[in-house]
Amino acid sequence: MVRSLWSAATGMHAQQTNLDTIANNLSNVNTTGYKTEVAEFKTLLYQNLQTKTTTANGANKPIGSQVGLGVRQSSINAIFRQGSLLEASSSSAYALEGSGFFEVQTETGEKMYTRNGNFIWATDKVNGADALTLTTSDGLPVLSSTGQKITIPVNRADGTKVAASRIEITADGTVGYPDATGNVKSLGMTIGVHQFQNPSGLHKNDNSLYSVTDASGRAMNESTTNGLLKSRVVQGYLEGSNVQVADEMVNMIVAQRAYEMNSKVIQTTDSMMETANNLRR
Fold first, then answer.
1. CA 113 to chain CA centroid, nearest Å
2. DSSP element (H, E) containing 251
3. How far apart are CA 215 and CA 204, in angstroms?
4. Residues 123, 132 contacting (CB under 8 angstroms)
5. Residue 34, SS3?
6. Between β-strands 203-204 and 210-211, what pairing exists: parallel, antiparallel or unpaired?
7. What is the pLDDT of residues 207-232, one digit of tens each?
8. Which tens digit of pLDDT belongs to each residue from 36-73?
9. Residue 144: what are its φ and ψ, rounded to 5°?
10. Cα 164 vs. chain centroid, distance in angstroms?
11. Each residue of 243-258: pLDDT tens digit?
């Protein structure tokens, strides 16, 4: 009977992790670019009570007797399903349609990746001259397809100044600005978009950032890697979370019921052991 106590305890622990994952999904239902996560589990070792060759009396037996010892967490996987595109009031908001990720650079120089395109054009200085640099809302520079910061000088050759609200990004990520006649001209820069063979293997960091791991594979630059179905950059929109609230509520009920059933197993086992202990009375 002690097996049932430990098996039920592992089940309660597993369902607590499951509920923690569901709670995290629901808490990020409005987080831009968030990808829903699913807790995966696997069985623990099985204990052999009898082999399949013979019974306790030595007779041939085609099927053995094994009893499981519970469950444990296997992994928590992110589901990289496309989120809905939500209209944004900012002209520097960019959504991705497809499998790509924006590339940003952290304070330590490490390159990370995100689906959160809620960017801003921050004021900057380049060789003493005023400039605008595309950054995340936390100030991390967004990198171009060549791995450089996307920086635009404020003062133009014709004497006018660049207005951040007039900077346009095409569907392939090309940065442009309208000329005197209103026609958008390329500035020779493209927002870097990268893909991964296994995005579920990316390491999740805070602020909706992901970092490369051996499981995810290297980052594949869409502008230089052949054979990739390129993503589409949509200006003026943000990718919403792909969390389905109704599904998460159902999963929460299932996790709660499973937790209750495992706790009932512990109570039943305790009652059976109490009955066994009272046999001599």
1. 11
2. helix 245-277
3. 13
4. yes
5. coil
6. antiparallel
7. 999 999 999 999 999 999 999 999 99
8. 999 999 988 887 777 777 666 767 777 777 788 899 98
9. -85, 180
10. 30
11. 999 999 999 999 999 9
User: For residue 178, how many C-alpha atoms fall within 13 Å in the half-sphere facing its CB?
Assistant: 9
User: Is the CB of residue 193 less than 8 Å from the CB of residue 231?
Assistant: yes
Work out whether strand 129-136 and strand 151-153 pair parallel, antiparallel, or are unpaired.
antiparallel
Instruction: Please report the DSSP string for 141-174 in residue order.
Output: BBBBTTS-B-EEESB-TTS-B--GGG-EE-TT-E
The three-state secondary structure class of 108 is coil
Q: What is the DSSP letter of 109?
A: S
Taking CA atoms, 108 is separated from 126, 140, 141, 212, in Å, by 20, 11, 12, 15
Q: Give how far Cα 36 sits from Cα of 23, 70, 239, Å.
A: 11, 26, 13
Residue range 154-177: average pLDDT?
89
Q: What is the pTM of this model?
A: 0.85
**Per-residue pLDDT tens over the stretch 71-86:** 998 999 999 999 999 9
How, if at all, do strands 119-126 and 129-136 pair?
Answer: antiparallel
Q: Where do the domains of the chain lie?
A: 2-80+243-277, 85-239
Order of strands across the sheet that contains 119-126:
119-126, 129-136, 151-153
Hey, what are 8's tokens? 């039920």
